[in-house]
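Batch job 17 of 40 flagged for manual review because the log was empty.
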Amino acid sequence: MFRFNSIDVGDERILTLQAPSYPNTNQPSFLSAQVLPDRGMMTLQIRARFPFLGEIDLLAPSLQEARKILEQDSEGFPGNASYLVGGAILLPYANRIRGSVSADGRSLRTSVLGRAVHLPANASGKRPGAERFAMHGLILAERIDKIHRETTGERDTLRAFLHAGDFGGCWVSNTEVEIENTLTPESFTVTITARNVGEELLPIGIGWHPYFTLPSGRREQARLYLSARRRVLVNNYDEVLPTGELVPVAGTEFDFSIPGGRPLNDLYLDDCFVDLTRSPAGHAVAEIVDPAAYYGLRVFSASAQVRAFQVYAPPKEGFVVIEPQFNWADPFGPQWDSRTDTGMAVLTPGEAVVYSASVELFMPQGC
């Protein structure tokens, strides 16, 4: 077991990965990454160097603001603040799950693979009377102590192990999780292996929720590239609940598939993009380009089970959240046709599935 010193985000530990030195100062490179083991190994911050920008933080908000948010009570749901900063790990489901909400509004009952489960109703829209739902999984406040660090001349790696069991009685079967964070000068990668160690079928959805900054602060000219053909329609942008209808993005303002991407302008985004087109290497790929800052960031997944990118980008904010994830929103909901594959992996006893999300940096063409 590797022993770490605590750094002050309340009483929580911060584990810092350090990238080996990178001799080519004409190319962007990663410097460090900070992880919170007391919040399910979420990514707190990633720091990098760009030729025209110097050293910058890649994730929003600043450490000072993140500290304030993480120390809040999150309306009585431990871990809720985890998906408001940095990059939370979402497991055993990403996005929303709906159900019959309890009288006190704190839990809901729903069906998962034909079995009744009770989940925390830890989120809702902000409008009066908005529906409550389960949001972003069950490890947001999980303390992980079994951690191993391996540092070489090429990379720095943290491996964490969690016996999640049935997630406190909230989920089906029993799960073991291994979370690996690897930093090199060229990339940062989150790899998650979930294994069914129970005796029933285990449904698993996995995602990562990073708030990528726009260094120039000029959101309207920033460009998004995303390899998807369709998106999921939602009831509104307050609750963001899927209607069960998928629509093509081609020819619309939501088509970000053109090389180099499309400017964000003033378009509000909180959309699940599906029917992904993969790269020649088999990767699901999204990119953010900030031309005014001579900045480019690529996030991609080699996992065949990644079936969606959820993109959250309010016009007045200086970030773009790009979430590679297995499942669509409310994957077991009645709005979906029984023949629709909504992305949840279903593991037989002893079976495992691997999720990965990687970040690379690049200089946009012409810079």
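Reviewer: the log was empty due to a logging misconfiguration, but the result itself is present. The first strand starts at residue 15 and ends at 18. Unflagging and moving on to job 18.
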